[in-house]
Amino acid sequence: MKTNLKNLTREELAALLAAVGKERYRADQIIRWLYRHRVDSVAAMSNLSRVCREQLQQLACLPALARVAVERAADGTEKFLYRLADGSCIESVLIPEKERLTLCVSTQVGCRQGCRFCVTGRQGFRRNLETAEIVDQVVQSQKYLDPQGKVIRNLVFMGMGEPLDNLAAVVKAVEILRYDDGLQFSSRRITLSTCGLVPEMALLGEQAEVSLAVSLNATTDRQRSELMPVNRRYPLEQLLAACRRYPLKRRSRITFEYILLHGVNDSIADARRLVRLLAPLRAKINLIPFNEHPQLPFRRPPAAAVTAFQEILLAKGLTVIVRKSKGADIQAACGQLRGRVQPAAGGETGSSVSPGTDA
Ligand code: SF4
């Protein structure tokens, strides 16, 4: 079977080429074609000799993700539905923030963590994405922006799936996305969000340099285990100990995400417990008022409850922001576009959403 070029790090590409007698600098040339020029075929790599291109085509292939739907929200958020070679579909979401564009990428088809407030969690798990499928979400989304002269500035691994449940592919993708002669994402512009897989958090700290976000959402084990089954394996004490051990650079902090669910975790007592849990850590807190969804049994808190919650954290000196809901009118939370695309007979290959459809 041919190797997908976007599955290979620079070293792996050099080894593939060395096996057919090609020089190492050819790997650098190919990296530039893949990630700087973003070509879709080996034939387009015009500074490789014809013989070299033919040899490469015998060894390797360069399939691209198919963008089968785009939805735009009134606030400029755009959601892409990408179809994979096996017919499965994944989402990437492009979020405009001030002058910057952030792309939220998926790491799995579905997810096995089953968080109760998450549409993807309800859809179950199908498979891990390959490195190439993670990297190509960025490449294809940037290609979509190229004619507009726009550049993706930040990446967040917060789409469908738990990134640390697919650690090897994610670590390799991060390495590729950081190449200076490629897409050039620095480590501080890549954030990985986890529901709290404690052993993998330690491995991530050893194997990749990224900013870490932890999806916390509760302040007691009973409450968190109800919302997030992962808490039964790795309760709060273990999770926070793993956060304390995580290798942070000077002046960086772990982001804790806290989805506010009305009547569930948005009380004054919850806010006070959150202060006690996070005050000893180098932490910043993102409060996210829940985006209501017909498939989910939770409600968004009233604005006054959100403000009261935030003020308790601020009064204790914590850094906290309330994240505005982006793309609420296109349901830009993970898994929601895919959930609305109708599977065609024989697999998830059909779409009831047209490319470029406005919300
Ligand atoms: S919130 Fe994240 S970890 Fe939890 S089910 Fe959804 S995709 Fe999986």
Brief descriptors of the model:
TIM Barrel; 2 domains; 14 strands; 359 residues; DNA polymerase, domain 1; disordered C terminus; alpha/beta; two-stranded parallel sheet; 19% strand; ten-stranded mixed beta sheet; elongated; 13 helices; binds iron/sulfur cluster
What topology emerges from the helices and strands here?
Blueprint lengths: L2 E2 L5 H9 L6 H12 L13 H10 E2 L4 E7 L5 E6 L5 E9 L2 E5 L3 E3 L8 H5 L1 E4 L2 H15 L8 E4 L9 H11 L12 E5 L3 H10 L3 E5 L5 H7 L2 H4 L2 H10 L8 E7 L7 H11 L4 E7 L13 H13 L3 E4 L13 H5 L19
Parallel strand pairs: 1-2, 6-9, 9-10, 10-11, 11-12, 12-13, 13-14
Antiparallel strand pairs: 3-4, 4-5, 5-6, 7-8
Helix pairs in contact: 1-2, 5-6, 7-10, 11-12
The chain binds iron/sulfur cluster.
Iron/sulfur cluster binds next to helix 4.
Main sheet: strands, sense, barrel: 10 strands, mixed
Q: In what order do the strands lie side by side in the largest sheet?
A: 3-4-5-6-9-10-11-12-13-14
Strands, total number: 14
CATH topology of the largest domain: TIM Barrel
- When the domains are counted, the total is 2
The first-level CATH class name of the largest domain: Alpha Beta
* Rounded average pLDDT: 90
CATH superfamily of the largest domain, by name, is Aldolase class I
| CATH architecture assignment of the largest domain | Alpha-Beta Barrel
Low-confidence stretches: 335-359
Q: What would you call the structural class?
A: alpha/beta
- Gyration radius (Cα, Å) is 21 Å
The shape is elongated
In N-to-C order, the SSE pattern is: EHHHEEEEEEHEHEHEHEHHHEHEHEH
Q: Helical stretch count?
A: 13
Our estimate of the beta-strand percent is 15-25%
Which compounds are bound in this model? Answer: iron/sulfur cluster
Distance between the termini: 41 Å
